[in-house]
Amino acid sequence: MEAITQRNLMLDIIKGIGILLMVYRHARGPYSDYVLLFHMALFFLASGYLYNEKSIKYFNKFIQRKLQALWFPFFLTNTIFMMLGSKP
Asked: Tens of pLDDT along 23-43?
């Protein structure tokens, strides 16, 4: 995995503004209904700016690791407990 050499300051500012708008919306400030129209789209745009082909490969590996480490043991233990706990 390549190391990030420099942070994008503009992207950090955009995400910071998005966080402030989200807090403002949850605090029910004046005109917060208008903030609702675009504050989440701001986060989607910021994350879309970081998209590249390598990120999909890393995302797929991340999902595979989480399925193996979290979902499979969860499924297995729940299946066992359901079999032991079921009454005819």
From this structure: 999 999 899 899 999 988 998
Cα separation of 65 and 63, whole Å? 5
Q: Supply the pTM of this predicted model.
A: 0.55
Contact predicate 21/36, CB 8 Å: no
The contacts of residue 42 (CB under 8 Å, 6+ apart) are 14, 17, 18, 21
Task: Spell out the residues 6+ positions from residue 49 whose beta carbon is closer than 8 angstroms to its own.
Answer: 11
Write the DSSP string, the chain.
-PPP-S--HHHHHHHHHHHHHHHHHHTT-TTHHHHTTTHHHHHHHHHHHT--HHHHHHHHHHHHHHIIIIIHHHHHHHHHHHHHH---
What the block records as the tokens of 45 is: 């745009």
